[in-house]
Structure prediction request, 483 residues.
Amino acid sequence: MKATEVPQDDANMMQGKFREPVYSLDENGNYTTVRSVGWDPKNEVMQEAWDAINEKIASTREKVIAGELSPIAYHLEKNLMDVGLLAKYTGLWKFKVKRHLKPRYFNKLSNDTLLKYAEVFELSVSELRDLSLVRSEHLPTTTEIKNG
Amino acid sequence: MDKILNFEHKQSAHCENGVVSNLLRYYGIEISEPMVFGIGSGLFFSHMPFLKVNGIPVTSFRPLPGIIFKRISKRLRIKFEKHKYSKPDIAMQELDKNLEKGIPTGMLVGVYHLTYFPVPYRFHFNAHNLVVYGKQNDKYFISDPIMEEFRTLTYKELKRVRYAKGTFAPNGHMYWVKESPGTLNLEQAIIKGIKHTCKDMLKIPIPMFGVKGIRFLSKKIRKYPEKLGAVKAASYTGQIVRAQEEIGTGGAGFRYMYGAFLQEAAEVLNNPALKDLSYEISGVGDKWRDFAVITGRIVKNRNKADESYDAAADLLLEIADMEEDFFKKLKKSIS
Prediction:
């Protein structure tokens, strides 16, 4: 690729925090780097990946509000985690974390266990318990996430 | 303790190369990112359908994290000291001791909690490398090879990213130059690096790696829409493009970087054939970009399976032929 052809398609994926150096050929046939703000095909797959994440967060929230899942399920998705990763962050067994996604187990959790989850999600225990918080929280779209 | 070392920061396209290049510059050894990448044999391809992340098969354009680092230290005879710590506070104390002694210190971190990273890039990926070169009050001074400029993190923020959990959990891993060799024997190291890459791309007797791996992926991708249905096929395909174009990895980007390496190597070894090949691999990189364009379109129209899958599979076969030819010529040119 020629240096003059390095794409500059800005979809704000990098939020102006850096540009990516791309190795390319200058007019004399020497390799050089040109900083790029983005490239459409890449922006699109990132957009798609974030849209999928946001859809999953929204549908999980519905299930939490409907009482099918505990608030932990919602915060897990919001933090882009899966059960295995959350188990590692809390230091709990994976099968226990899986259980705690169900309201009937969640409602019986001790304060100590709740505190473990709350710390990982950067919440207080009462915030973690609070269903109205889950209900009222604004879910950002991919565009809002990018524009921070 | 207040101490800020006189550390020069250069941005790079891939964090592992960049950290090595920046650390060595501190000790008076000027070695470019492409040189580190080439000597460390950073170019690779693998497609492993049975190894899944988030339920999607892994396609990768790089060797496992840490491998470039290992190879470069062996091939250039640079001694690194490496440590992991079971206690986060100890890991931070040891870092402070290093800074006190005037040692810029490389380390592995998770990017999810890296506050200066753009949010759309913050996934739970744990094999990111950076250098800490100073501390003032509660602030650590960071040379992150992905960033254009220096950054800072607080004690708490740095401790958190050093103890990110999950795959490749860093466990406070840090490393620094123990003994710098003074002068480098580049010639030998370059040849070793090239030979290794040729072997990786041509000779691994398992169909998932190198040029064979590209053909293998072609076969798989052709069957995706029929086997998986439109939506799942598109998400499988999306993973390939993300692996190809996300920071630190990259199919096309790595080919261009390899071209820059070959151009430098041509000078060091006084071997003009390598310069010709440096242009050829740029053309292969362009083909990988065409592939990203097609697969990007598949992802965008994810609700209907169309003939794009065949086009993508055909393009992969073409790329595989080009790379096979390229690496055979490359091998010949140095033997």
Notes: Chain A has two domains: 3-38, 52-147. The mean pLDDT of chain A is 93. Strands of chain A lie at 20-25, 31-36. Chain A touches chain B at residues 1, 13-15, 17-25, 29-31, 33, 35, 39-42, 44-46, 48-50, 52, 80-82, 84-85, 88-89, 142, 145-146, 148 (CB under 8 Å).
